[in-house]
Amino acid sequence: MQRTPDARSRDSDHRLDIRLEQIKIIYSAVPLSVIAILINSTILSSALWDVIPPATNLAWLLGTYSISVYRWLIYRSFKAASPESLASEDWLRSLVVGTLISGALWGSASIFLFPPDSMLHQVLLAFVIAGMSAGAVTTLSSVFHLSAAFLLLTLTPLIWRFVTAADATSHVMAIMSTLFALMVIVSSRRLNNTIMETLQIRHERRQAERTIRYQALYDELTDLPNRRLLLKRLEQEMTRSVRHSHMGAVLILDLDHFKTINDSLGHRVGDKLLKLVAMRIQSRIRAEDTAGRLGGDEFVVLIPEVGDAPGIAASNTQKVALELLDQFRRSFTIEDHELHLSASIGIALFPMDQRSPEDLLQQADVAMYSAKERGRDNTQIFLPSMQAAVDQRLQVDRGLRQAIGNGELELYYQPQVLASGRIIGAEALVRWNHPERGLVSPAEFIGVAEETGLIYQLGDWILRRACEHLAVLGRERGLHIAVNISPKQFRENSFVERVKTIIAETGAPPELLTLEITENVVIDNIEQTIGRMQILKALGITFSVDDFGTGHSSLAYLKRLPLDVLKIDQSFVRDIGTDPNDAVIVETIIVMAQHLELQVIAEGVETREALHFLTAKGCRQFQGYLFARPEPFDTLLGLLHRPSMVLVS
Ligand code: C2E
Ligand code: MG
Ligand code: MG
């Protein structure tokens, strides 16, 4: 099987890591082994003083002392070496040389210090050499070949000595030394196995810890730092910039219309595209800059030093940002698809008046949205004036969180009627009774709730309340209620389950519940959307596309969806009488709805002229100030007691 470069580099990391541990173990035993050698060689030399010529004896002793000093010195330099250099094979080589010379010296003792005529001294020599060999098993076994070579060098001459002697006792000694040699080599092998297994386990554990640490700080797809690591680096750079009085910049780069690619070509292509984008961004920045991924199609570039004054810093960063945008001029080729992509970049400089790295990112984010609003494929530097909008959003978010708990939210209902004025249903529209500001329009807070994720809780509350009302309304009058579902809410995994639960708990008749979704939901993930809609339709729920005509949905998409109603956006209805384009659009939508066998309802009907135009073109259902404004539920109930809607003129 062909292995990937990744797997190969992991293997080599693995080997290096274990090698380093082996080297460390063997070095850690050097002091003990040096001391043992010094003591044993001194004892041996003195014990043999009378039977061996002093010159030979001293030469041998000097040899062992010298090699011990050499081993001690390399041990000291190993201890003092920098951690990165420890894995080098040079360290092992130096130690191997010292150890083999030492082994040879001990072996040579059997040649030069062997007293042929004194059995007692021979046994003493054999005893000391055996002791040294046994010691070597403990100190050298982490590198088996070294241990085995040392033992062979030390013991072979001794065995040879006994073998070649003429007397029977020596032959017995030869057999015993051979057995001993075999035994210590086998023990060394076994000890080596145990050590290697332990090292393996330790390595795997370390590896697992490393992976966990990596995953916590890096984005799995692109290998770029993730939000957590970015925030950490940002914090460091913000502090450094204050200390050294220079300025840095953060750029948030968001791909334009990435979702369309992801949804139409699939996540695999989307993922590959994100990887390529990461590579292009990285190729454009300097080594001291950091590129990261915040998630989705949002990337960040941190430039620690861009200039000393705001003006220079801004123009330098702008240059980098434009260079980054240039990276998107070339198309991306993925699996035979040639993809053209652009991006929008928001820039925030620091240190300005940000309190935290999060603040800084938020400023860059606000600037990025402004770049998107200005037509995408664009860059925008954060301006202090944008802060007001940020602060207001924060305020709305904070207030809204409390509003749900404090019962400050209320559902209003706007009747939906036939041309005759007969009410057939109502659209639920949420209102916030703000303790200081009075009635706050959803236009002001739905968007914020979407951004902060509060929409889940809010959407739940709205659907539950609407279903409670529908339980009353449906039972008494057979009227339906339309509830607006925000795209994020619809995309939540538990959405279908939540709807089912709420219907079951409130007792609302599902066949009278209409969910208003927007075109964005429709084009976002067509398969998933169809799946969810079908489950809910099976319960009897109907679906209507809100603000139709303002989004990007195509006829091909619409045909595939199990829809019931198209709701013509009020922006077209408003100018029906004055803008010929709008009149044509409205007419087209009505014709299209008829072809697709969908009902059509016009919203924002304010004038009789509009009503007449719509009726003439075949629209049968209406909603707008001409009939009624959104009113509290009780007012709606009151309206229902009239025989038909009186037109408000
Ligand atoms: P929408 O769903 O398109 O709702 C219609 C909006 O048009 C409502 O504004 C309604 O009051 C207004 N409208 C109705 N008739 C007329 C008319 O004749 N002339 C004019 N100029 N306007 C008319 P509202 O209540 O301020 O809601 C604004 C938007 O906020 C809604 O647009 C909807 O997108 C969102 N929204 C409102 N309530 C909810 C809710 O409960 N959940 C969610 N997710 N979104 C909601
Ligand atoms: Mg609506
Ligand atoms: Mg609408």
Mean pLDDT, to the nearest integer, reads 91
Strand content: 15-25%
- Percent of residues in helical segments? 55-70%
* Overall geometric form: elongated
Alpha plus pi helix count: 24
Strand element count: 17
The molecules bound to the chains, other than polymers, are:
ligand C2E, magnesium ion
Summarize the main sheet.
8 strands, mixed, barrel
State the strand order across the main sheet. 8-9-11-12-13-14-15-16
Identify the CATH class of the largest domain. Alpha Beta
How many separate domains? 3
Q: Looking at this structure, what is the CATH superfamily of the largest domain? A: EAL domain
Given helix and strand content, the structural type is alpha/beta
**CATH architecture annotation name of the largest domain:** Alpha-Beta Barrel
Q: State the assembly state of the protein chains.
A: single chain
Radius of gyration (Å)? 41 Å
Describe it:
With 649 residues, this protein is an alpha/beta fold. It folds into 3 domains: 5-214, no CATH class; 227-382, Reverse transcriptase/Diguanylate cyclase domain (Alpha-Beta Plaits); 394-639, EAL domain (TIM Barrel, Alpha-Beta Barrel). It is 62% helix and 15% strand. It is built from 24 helices and 17 strands. The strands form 3 sheets. The chain has an 8-stranded mixed barrel with strand order 8-9-11-12-13-14-15-16, surrounded by 5 helices. A 5-stranded mixed sheet has the order 2-3-1-6-7, sandwiched between helices. Helix 6 runs antiparallel to helix 7. The longest helix has 50 residues, at 168-217. The protein is elongated, with a radius of gyration of 41 Å. Bound molecules: ligand C2E and magnesium ion (2 copies). Residues 414, 428-430, 441-443, 446, 459, 462, 484-486, 516, 546-547, 570, 603-606, 623-625, 630 line the site of ligand C2E.
